[in-house]
């Protein structure tokens, strides 16, 4: 997992780097919660989740997008 660091007030200058060690456990916990929430709105992702298969970042982004379009999920 990576962290996106916004280096200006407009959020237009973004730097990607490794998540600092002190935040890694919390980031993993919240990523798991996000995957679970998205999987609840998508049968295919739910099957992968329940079978213990890895859900890719691309699948997660697509799931968030589709759930948002379907008004089933509200990313904040």
What are the SSEs and their pairings?
Layout: E1 2-6, E2 14-18, H1 21-39, H2 43-50, H3 57-69
Describe this entry's structure for a reader:
With 76 residues, the protein is of the alpha+beta class. Helix content is 53%, strand content 13%. It is built from 3 helices and 2 strands. The chain has a two-stranded antiparallel ribbon with strand order 1-2. Helix 1 crosses helix 2. The longest helix has 19 residues. The two termini are 19 Å apart.
Catalogue the unreliable spans. none
Radius of gyration based on Cα positions: 14 Å
Q: Percent of residues in helical segments?
A: 40-55%
> How many structural domains?
1
What is the percentage of strand-forming residues? 5-15%
Structural class, from secondary structure content?
Answer: alpha+beta
Task: Give the spatial strand order of the biggest sheet.
Answer: 1-2
Q: Report the order of strands and helices.
A: EEHHH
Q: Mean pLDDT, nearest integer?
A: 94
Q: N-to-C terminal Cα separation, in Å?
A: 19 Å
Largest beta-sheet details: 2 strands, antiparallel
Number of beta strands: 2
Structure annotation, total helices: 3
| Overall body shape | globular
Spell out the key features of this protein.
76 residues, alpha+beta, 3 helices, 2 strands
């Amino acid at each position: 997992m990576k962290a996106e660091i916004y280096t200006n007030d407009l959020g237009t200058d973004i730097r990607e780097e490794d998540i600092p060690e002190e935040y890694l456990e919390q980031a993993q916990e919240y990523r798991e919660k996000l995957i679970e929430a998205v999987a609840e709105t998508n049968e295919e992702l739910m099957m992968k989740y329940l079978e213990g298969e890895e859900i890719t970042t691309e699948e997660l982004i697509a799931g968030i997008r589709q759930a948002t379009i379907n008004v089933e999920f509200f990313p904040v």
